[in-house]
Amino acid sequence: MRRFAAILVALACPALHAADKPTAEQLDYFEKHVRPVLLAECVRCHGEKKQEAGLRLDTAAGLKKGTDAGPAVVAGEPDKSSLIKSVRRKGEFPMPPDKELPKEQVDALVQWVKVGAAFPESAAKPVAPNTVKTHWAFQPVSDPVPPAVPNARTPLDQFVVKKLQEKNLSLSPQADKRTLIRRAYFDLIGLPPTAEEIEAFEKDAAPDAFAKLVDKLLAMPQYGERWGRHWLDVARYADTKGYVFTEDRNYPYAYTYRDYVINAFNADKPYNRFVVEQLAADKLVLGADKTPLAAMGFLTVGRRFSNNMHDIIDDRIDLVGRGLMGLSIGCARCHDHKFDPIPTADYYSLYGVFSSSNEPKELPLIAEAERTPAALAFEAELQKMEQAAADFEQKMYAEALAPFKRPGSIADMLLATKETKGFPSDKADKWAVERKLDPRMLDRWRTAVTGDDPIFAPWLAFTNLPEKDFGAKAKDALAALKKPANAHVVTILKDAKPQTIGETAAVYAQLLADAAKGAVPNADGDWQALVTRMVGDGGITNPLPGDTDKLVLIATKKVFRKLRNDAALARVKSPFAPPRAMVLNDNARPTEPVVFLRGNPGNRGPRIPRQMPEITVGLDRKPFTNGSGRLELANSIVGPTNPLTARVIVNRVWTWHFGQGLVRTPSDFGLRSDPPTHPELLDWLAKRFATDDGWSIKNLHRRIMLTAAYQQASVTTPAMTAADPENRLLGRFNRQRLDFEGLRDSLLSTAGTLDRSKIGGRSVDLFTAPFTPRRSVYGFVDRQNLAGTLRAFDFASPDQHTPQRFQTTVPQQALFLMNSPFIGEVAKGVGTKVSSAKTTPENVTAVYRTVLSRNPTPAELALADEFLQTPGPKNALSPWEQLAQVLLLSNEFAFVD
């Protein structure tokens, strides 16, 4: 009889059906990470004009056809895909034949195949101007009048009922009060109501009983924990960086961003302010309270891509685009967006915003440190440890970079920029290696040496001069410059009168080597410009540590790594370390961005201003002039003329309530998205949200939850199923399965061990015994080694923005619920409700009320009695605890109607 636990698990898990066509997110991934690799590395030999071995890789049909040996890609099975074997260089034909692809490109191809190898079925056509003008998401938010519908409970219901009536359908009956209170509890605080709370609500006959319940839940601190976790999916939250070579992988202060989000939801911080603080809190006047600085973790808790700054910035652009405006701006990194009106220039306008910001080494405090003797002793010891690591690091990198600040090295690099002019970066790297030059340093010089720069404009002018009569022509070239050059450069060139380009390089090199020694007292502005260009933030010979790391001897790095990691570990683990905010600061000199042709930083196109994408604000957009432009960007995103922001967040909140959005692609409102099922309702809600409700998320909850549409039952009828099988018209409520956090937290709550006493704090290990009683939102998220249980239960990927969680059914879910020691502990906690002083029916009732918040039916009492009387195999759990586990595995516990 006890085997029926396994049957309950099977019944609790509906079958998973694969999608028939690629999702917008899958196609975005292809456009961002896969198509650029295919274009750069494959289509020369396997494209429209040439198909070596009969293989074509620029169409879906070509990939499917493959060669005579079989398809190039087997969706879902990278190990069986010949393309993956080739790029891994494990197949018969390693590709590309002349070099290995970078690991991140191979990983992107593998991930693409693993999740279905999505490929647009047909070539993208240019976006028609009329389509852009008429696309619903790019129109100003309208203010429609709710349609006249008799007996509709609220204006929102008028929109829903009108749509249903057009199909001769109606709303389902109101759900019973037990269903409503469970729905509201799980929806707003992610926890189950007790049997006593359900009974009290059922007895409350007041017309506003549900409204009072909603207000009560919105006022509970557990609300922020539940809804903050929704936003952390959007923000790709994690406590680690991913792979970063030998650096410490932890983000010691990521938790301060998580806590900021939780507190912002609890305080009902207006969403427009919430957005601005997450992008530019450092640019706001904050007063004594510095906690809003923690909001900037939105940008900085992302993956670090082996410290590739271009990819880090791309991740931030994608987050801002899809997360806040429903635009896949990242797809325009290498080419104009294939579907939406987003040119590459708009991508690099935003690139300029984020490349003009940096993360300070010393993060700002957002709360005072404890002043107890133990805390002061810890702080003093930590400062010594960190100072020792910082001193060693400074010395280590200074020694590694010293050769590059010598005149001979500088002259070599200047001449190398001349020889590699116009080279794509991979060709320039190969050229440098062949000549025993450092390719990373050459890339920095190639980036810095531009014609618009007052320091290097004379150099570029001289590189175009013929060898014959070089000296005479150099004097004329210097006089012909269109803009004033750096005064020190002009003076030294006039005095030295170089007769060849080599002599010019030597003159420049001596000047720049002197500047690389650092600032001098009373220096003028032009000399300071030389110093900044060489050794200031982002200077040519002052690269980020990750870029310099390979120049340092392995033995030296080991010493430094131990010093740094010891200090980092002390800071992470000590309860005395005060919280700090993971902020960005503006660079002293903002980046003037250029377009990277085909996404290649070494192949530069036109210069463009930092500004908003045109589609979001129209033709009258203005360049950003306030530092990096992050504050102007934030204000534009929440500005009254942006048609996207209010619609996107309203649709997200709707999705988190109903399980599906009015727009089915919450992070893609572009031309590929399906139109809203209820466009007038979406605009009506967005308009109310941004005007009447003052961007209040809690008021939006009330507008949604106090409707007949939200409070209807989840049952369907044959007519409803036939007319609207996907429930797009909202004729019933969608039954929803608890996500991982809801399931784990409910288990702890049921056992009576959930810790509700503290909001916030450092992240904790959820999966090692003794198991923490803290809520799941406080669990440590390691993006490189995500816990297997989290993966099994469809936890949001911390590697990228997650618009909506998938729901899959895999055996690991059932195995966890049946065999995990954690579940055993919960069952034992429930077993404590059983008393020898009570009869069997009384004890069965106590277990049912604890787990399912209701009394058992007579049939369930009889079945439980039979279960308890039937001898079973020896088990670590008592029969009563096994009964509790059976109920914990039931659909009734794991699903919300």
Automatic annotation (TrEMBL):
Residues 1-18 form the signal peptide. SUPFAM superfamilies: Cytochrome c. Pfam families: PSCyt1 (PF07635), PSCyt2 (PF07583), PSD1 (PF07587). InterPro entries: Cyt_c-like_dom, Cyt_c-like_dom_sf, Cyt_c_Planctomycete-type, DUF1549, DUF1553. The keyword DNA-binding does not apply. It comes from the Bacteria. PROSITE patterns: CYTC (PS51007). Residues 21-221 form the Cytochrome c domain. Keywords: Heme, Iron, Metal-binding, Signal. GO terms for molecular function: electron transfer activity; heme binding; metal ion binding. PANTHER family: CYCLOINULO-OLIGOSACCHARIDE FRUCTANOTRANSFERASE-RELATED (PTHR35889), F-BOX DOMAIN-CONTAINING PROTEIN (PTHR35889:SF3). This is Cytochrome c domain-containing protein.
